[in-house]
Amino acid sequence: MSAKTPSLSTQAVQSTFWAYASFASGKLLVFVSTIILARLLVPESFGLMAICLIAIQYLDILNAAGVGSAVIQRRDKIEEAANAAIVIGTISGVLLFGVAWIAAPGLAAFFGEDDVTDLFRALAIVIPISAIGTVPSALIQRSLRFKAKFVPDIGRSLAKGSLSVVLAWQGFGVWSLVYGQIAGEIVATVVMLMLARWRPTLKFDWAVTRQVLRFGSHIIGVGITGALFANVDYLLIGRMLGAAALGYYTMAYRIPELVIRNTNFVIARVAFPVLSHIQADISRLRHVYGTMLRYVAIFAFPAGVGIALIASPFVHVFFTAQWDRSIPVMQLVAISLSISAVGHLPGIIYKAIDRPEILNQLSMLKLIVTVVVLWFTIRWGISGVAAGQVGLSVMFVILDSVVVARVLGFAGRRMFEAVLPALVATAVMGACVGGLVVLADPQGVAGLALLISLAVCVYSGALLLVSRETLLHARTVLRSAMARA
């Protein structure tokens, strides 16, 4: 019987596969709509929307007071925790909508964009809407039912993308993005409630409620600091370089974010409940952490280098020459995100073992360093900011490796061994494809297809040579995951 039960690390990879398949399906629809919208809207429209979304993100961290993570992390009295979370979330969602309405003129004044006031007030309705779906989403993640995420993720993206495109075609400008965002959140929340198979009850426990709030308060601190850390580049560019520059920078982020950063997001959704289940078993934590680290590197390293190599033909084919300023930024951002991907997992470890204060302290330190570095590099424009992000990624991965080694007993040597196969295979791929770019500079659809095909073939072959067992294990796990569909 036990022989038929997959190991936790295998279950984690399988869950990640389904979570990413769900997430990527929705993001693929967003990508298609982005290609169309890039031809219908000007860069300023994307910049204005980015300003509003940055502010929404900060308020959304306060939304539900971090209690979604508290529900996932709990091992007992789940019903009481869920009931407490839905009450807290509903109240906070309504209050934060009011805060957003009042703060909108100040946000517009900060960025020097008067249109932001009305745009932000309209967009803020997504805060109470998303609060309603916090607990159902947390319960789905806690039970590792990631196949159930297919429908809400696709529904959100389909509603958001299709409505935005139709309205942009009709001349609604930046408002097409706002209305699309609201429609997508409504659809996702409704579907999530239907799939969660959970309804609130009157079963409350004040001790559990206090515990949920305590854990959630740490997550809020981590979230706010993390959001400032993640968006300080957007804030500086929007404030100092204007909405147009922010529009170019935002577009440059679209593909690296879609392929790499969203993978980190998916892995975090899977890893947190998986690691929380074994929070008391340090030996198993090390093993599962090492497995996840290996697979993150296998995907993130070639993805980052590959995107950097195909950025020029990609932008010309899909976004048109209007977006040429985004090309060097996209290249640098892709490298930055591929490096930082391996430093994303330690933070999940700290939350899983109920040590979110470590993550909070590290996030504060990273925020300070990031502000200083990007404040200096912004003098070279959006490309300077992107270059600063590469340096920060290297610095922070080293820092995260040192800290997790002390907390988990996971030596730096083991981390290096986990990422080495991907590092070597990516270097081989980069040399081959980079040589072709320098010698021939392929452009157009044919050139893009040639570069992607060569990159996939060379990387797969190199990985097969340097770590055949890793590639074969990945294939086995993916087949097992698909067989369990």
Describe this entry's structure for a reader:
The chain is mainly alpha-helical. It has one domain. Helices cover about 85% and strands about 0% of the residues. It contains 19 helices and no strands. Mean pLDDT is about 80; it is low at about 1-5 and about 480-485.
For the biggest sheet, the summary is:
none
Number of helices: 19
Which percent range fits the helix content?
over 70%
* Uncertain stretches of 5 or more adjacent residues: 1-5, 481-485
| Integer tally of domains | 1
What is the CA–CA distance across the termini? 20 Å
Report the order of strands and helices: HHHHHHHHHHHHHHHHHHH
Q: In terms of structural class, how would the helical and strand content be classed?
A: mainly alpha
Mean pLDDT: 81
Beta strand count: 0
Our estimate of the beta-strand percent is: under 5%
Radius of gyration: 22 Å
Shape: globular
List keywords for this structure.
mainly alpha, 485 residues
